């Protein structure tokens, strides 16, 4: 098994507290939506602002993101609240657009992690760049595929790497959108004790009701932080409406942990 060269979370340029809270809308929808959500989230003490710009959707016809026109909105919102911004990348061009726009943290989504060609393309685009990269687990429960993605990004010279557990799709119905299968992140943590690891209750749950219990479980298992989707008006969100919460509700959930 290859070793990973892992920089500590304290080197990422984010507040060194636990849990680190990454929040923001599933998708950037307008400049006003990004700004209002960011300002209300800042009032709740988040550490990193997230938004999807390119949305890999299971079926075509769903909202696929506004693309790079939304990057300056996110940048401006991050500067306004004084927090780093995080964006999902799935291709070489996404990486270049994000680097040009001054995005602080990149993440690789679950559908992308499942494809070694895509991950390698992103890794190649990151050669010689120093930026934190968070790698979500692949959609399917395959620890080797998750580790392989971490290795590919790490071999490109990225040492600020982290893992993000967002659950796994399964054929049988369950109360979760994506089954947590906690044994996967736990085993990853056993293999790489220094690897920063985050949990994404939003995509595990797929609804608002279970968010607190999943977030609490992650903290009980000593995860370093949480990514939780939040929208200024969740019910009208263009993607993942059922699982998003208002910034104020997000604050309540976090304070309740
Ligand atoms: C997201 O974070 O909005 C997203 C698309 O998540 P995932 O890759 O976990 O499905
Ligand atoms: Mn989402």
Give the spatial strand order of the biggest sheet. Answer: 1-2-3-4-5-6-7-8
Mean pLDDT over the residues: 97
From the spread of the alpha carbons, the general shape counts as globular
Q: Biggest sheet, open or closed, and with what strands and sense? A: 8 strands, parallel, barrel
Q: Topology as H/E string?
A: EHEHEHEHHEHEHEHHEH
Name the structural class: alpha/beta
Radius of gyration: 16 Å
> End-to-end distance, in Å?
35 Å
Ions, cofactors and other ligands present here are:
phosphoenolpyruvate, manganese (II) ion
Low-pLDDT segments, ≥5 res = none
The total beta strand count reads 8
Portion in beta strands? 5-15%
Q: Count of helical segments?
A: 10
Percentage of residues in helical conformation: 25-40%
Give me the secondary-structure topology:
Blueprint: E1 20-24, H1 31-42, E2 48-50, H2 71-81, E3 85-88, H3 92-101, E4 105-108, H4 110-113, H5 116-125, E5 133-136, H6 143-155, E6 161-165, H7 183-191, E7 197-199, H8 201-205, H9 211-220, E8 225-229, H10 247-255
Parallel strand pairs: 1-2, 1-8, 2-3, 3-4, 4-5, 5-6, 6-7, 7-8
Helix pairs in contact: 1-2, 1-10, 3-5, 5-6
The structure holds phosphoenolpyruvate and manganese (II) ion.
Manganese (II) ion (MN) binds at residues 26, 229, 239-240.
Model description:
It is globular and about 45 Å long. It is built from 10 helices and 8 strands. The model has no long low-confidence stretch (mean pLDDT 97). 36% of the residues lie in helices and 13% in strands. Strands 1-2-3-4-5-6-7-8 form an 8-stranded parallel beta barrel, surrounded by 6 helices. It has 257 residues and is an alpha/beta fold. Bound molecules: phosphoenolpyruvate (PEP) and manganese (II) ion. The site of phosphoenolpyruvate has 8 residues, from helix 4.
């Amino acid at each position: 098994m290859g070793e990973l060269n892992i920089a500590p979370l304290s080197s990422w340029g984010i507040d060194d507290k636990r849990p680190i809270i990454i929040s923001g809308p599933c998708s950037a929808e307008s400049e006003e939506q990004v700004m209002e959500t960011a300002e209300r989230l800042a009032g709740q003490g988040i550490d990193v602002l997230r938004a999807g710009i390119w949305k890999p959707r299971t079926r075509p016809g769903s909202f696929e993101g506004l693309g790079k026109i939304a990057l300056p909105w996110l940048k401006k919102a991050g500067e306004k609240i004084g927090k780093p911004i995080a964006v999902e990348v799935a291709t070489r061009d996404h990486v270049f657009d994000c680097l040009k726009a001054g995005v602080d943290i990149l993440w690789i989504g679950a559908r992308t992690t499942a494809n070694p060609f895509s991950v390698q393309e992103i890794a190649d685009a990151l050669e010689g760049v120093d930026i934190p990269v968070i790698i979500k687990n692949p959609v399917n429960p395959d620890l080797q595929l998750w580790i392989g993605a971490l290795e590919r990004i790490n071999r490109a010279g990225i040492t600020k790497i982290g893992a993000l557990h967002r659950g796994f799709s399964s054929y049988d119905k369950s109360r979760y959108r994506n089954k947590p299968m906690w044994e996967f992140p736990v085993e990853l943590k056993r293999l790489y004790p220094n690897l920063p690891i985050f949990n994404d209750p939003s995509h595990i749950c797929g609804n608002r009701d279970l968010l607190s219990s999943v977030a609490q479980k992650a903290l009980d298992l000593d995860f370093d932080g949480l990514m939780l989707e939040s929208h200024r008006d969740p019910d009208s969100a263009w993607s993942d409406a059922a699982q998003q919460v208002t910034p104020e509700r997000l604050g309540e959930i976090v304070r309740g942990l």
